[in-house]
Amino acid sequence: xxxxxxxxARAVLIDLYSRPYEVWTQNERxxxxxxxxxxxTYVKNQQALGQRVDPLDTxxxxxxxxxxxxxxxxxxxxxxxxxVLVETAQQQADNTAQSRKNPAYGTLENEIAALNxxxxxxxxxxxxDYYVNGGMTGEQWKRYQQTGALPTGIPLTVRExxxxxxxxxxxxxxxxxxxxxxxxxPEAWGARKMNLAAQQRENALMGLSGAERFLGxxxxxxxxxxxxxPLAAVNPxxPLAAMGTKAAAQKxxxxxxxxxxxxxxxxxGMLAGGTEVLTEKxxxxxxxxxxxxxxxxxxxxxxxxxxxxxxEEAASTVLNHAADVMANDPEAKLSWQDVALSAFxxxxxxxxxxxxxxxxxxxxxKVNELLPGLSRADGTAGTHNGVNKNKDVKxxxxxxxxxxxxxxxxxEYIITGKRMSTRDAKLKMLLEGDSPIITSxxxxxxxxxxxxxxxRGTIKAFGKVGDRLATVLRNATGGKINIDDHYLxxxxxxxxxxxxxxxxxxxxxxxxxxxxxxxxxxxxxxxxDDVLQIRIGKNAVVFQLGKKINGYSIVxxxxxxxxxxxxxxxxxxxxxxxxxxxxxxxxSRR
Length: 590
Known about the structure:
Elements: H1 3-17, H2 26-48, H3 55-63, H4 66-99, H5 103-121, H6 127-132, H7 138-147, H8 156-178, H9 189-205, H10 210-228, H11 238-257, H12 262-293, H13 298-326, H14 336-370, E1 383-384, E2 387-388, H15 389-400, H16 410-414, H17 420-431, H18 441-452, E3 459-464, H19 467-476, E4 487-491, H20 492-502, E5 510-511, H21 515-519, H22 521-526, E6 530-536, E7 541-549, E8 552-561, E9 565-575, H23 576-588
Parallel strand pairs: 4-9
Antiparallel strand pairs: 1-2, 3-4, 5-9, 6-7, 7-8, 8-9
């Protein structure tokens, strides 16, 4: 290779790398591939001969190496993730401090705080409560929702509440208009690193198009996720935390680069990170299970992981688009081709991940055979005389677990369900500021009141099926019903139906159902006395539980379906005499 050929290649690369990859023509991309090959060979030859190589030439040669660029992209993206989030938070704090130097902004903040205090204290005077308590007709309420104008004859306290609430909305809009919204500087350390990572990723894919580019991007993503997987050996949540942090930083940095206010960039970044955690939870757990236990065999491991990853990648694409739409992002675009490509990329990534996981398991297994004193990859570490002490501890903890869910259950519940539409509905509820799980009796009461006041179509989980109930149903049906670890759900529509149907006794022995009975449902189900009836249908299983209380009994009808959950479908109260004469007889005939 002549110096003239190297000089020509150098000039081409310097010209191209001075411009964003997106503006290159197809011919320029092909020329970059040719020039990269020429110049990379030239620099390697010079180094082999012991010649001094100019640092710029070394950098240009490095940029032409796909594997090196992919590795540096993953590294720089990883180290930049937290700094990007910190820089964004710091810029937002600086903006807030600058905003508060404006006396009018401070006045608005004080007014907003006072209005919020008033509305919290006077919540019983809201138009919603006034309507629920019979103060407005259905037609008046509909007109109010459409026009925002209260009908004549409304008490002054309700009018004052409505006026204050509208003023709060105006004040918050004025504060947003007045706020300083300086974006994060692209020269910030984290931003520069993250942008460098993006350029290096493009360098790794330069010259590729169509299927080749798609496969290259998928391979980089697989490598990135695989490098995070060993963190699960320390704590199973760490790979998800790393993926979520990186996704949050990528989205935040993208929006910072587009000039968005740091507060909005950070919020949408957090949503993207949360979506990544929720949609990657099952694939990561499945892959880590393959590493630990070997899974179900090489082929089955690949097929299982492909199905899980394809679904979650498609869901992630749809949900991230939904978040952009909700934020009124002008660049929010989605096509079914994008969704299909995400799913296909997930399948390819999963196939590679399952193969790697299986190989890691067998490698660890061989090491354990050679070094039997080390902890085993199949999960039997911590044993003594053949007894797994960790298992004993877990069983004791299971017996004491709360009848309610907690925040740690949120991620798993959201990704549970056979249909994507089921999982999307749960995440949409969370993105709109309403948790899809119930964690206390107070939450149950609030859910019931909202249903009675008119909320419809809402389903939430309040607990999980206990071991006792799952065992009783399994034994009673010869193993046909298996609801181990299913979620217990409650629906606003079913609550209203039960309350309307059973709040007034209709037959001898019936007793009026009260709202407090609904609030105690989790307790009644967890501590049921009898399984009264079981009906196995084509698409669902229905069973009734009985709970005897002082002087009366509660009967709860529950349905199990493809949501991988069981849902309270109906509830009624009867006298203990009727319970023993009618419902217990049904139990004896099963």
